[in-house]
Every structure is written in C-alpha cells, then in structure tokens.
Amino acid sequence: MTVRTVLTAFLCILAGAAVHAQEKPATPKDKPPAVYPMPPPEPPMVTPPTGGAPVRTETLTDKATRCLHYATSIGVPKDQIDDYMKRCTRQ
C-alpha cells in the first residue's frame, strides 16, 4: 500500500507540473489593437458656374452611414466598431 500511495502522489505531482507548464492564451488586453484604414474621402463639392449653393452636401448622418458601411466591408470587429466610427466621422 505504501508503493501505491507513493506512486499516486508522484503522478499527481507530474499532472500538476504539466498543468502549470501550459502557456496562457493571450488576453485581449495583451493584443495590440488592429489599425484599419479610413474610407477614401468624399470628392470635393462643386459650385455651379451660376454662383449658387454647392451641388452636394454630406450631413453627419450621411458620413456615419458611409463609415459604418465601409467598416463592415473591411471586416472591423464588433468590439472595435465604436472607436473606428469616432475616428472616421471626425475626418
């Protein structure tokens, strides 16, 4: 019975050492955030030759929609969409 107890203790120690030897997976805090490209800028507004108002204007809603569509098309993860949208709409 002594041999069995010693062998059991030895196997438990080996199993514990194997568990501690495993690497921890990288947590999201350890990984650097990915940098995604900004969408191409909108073409400049063209003033008609009559001197009237510009032909096209982009509202904040239009810009946010364009940024969101672009972010989803290039594969920005859901947890980084908020930061991407803030940077994109400030352009």
Describe this structure in words.
- With 91 residues, this protein is mainly α.
- It has a domain at 58-91.
- Helix content is 48%, strand content 0%.
- The chain is built from 3 helices and no strands.
- The chain has helices spanning 2-21, 60-74, 81-89.
- The model has no long low-confidence stretch (mean pLDDT 74).
Helix content range:
40-55%
Mean of all residue-level pLDDT scores: 74
The helix-strand sequence is HHH
End-to-end span in angstroms? 76 Å
Q: Which descriptors apply to this entry?
A:
91 residues, mainly alpha, 0% strand
Outline the secondary-structure elements:
Layout: H1 2-21, H2 60-74, H3 81-89
Helix pairs in contact: 2-3
Summarize the structure.
With 91 residues, this protein is mainly alpha-helical. The protein is built from three helices and no strands. The radius of gyration is 29 Å and the shape is rod-shaped.
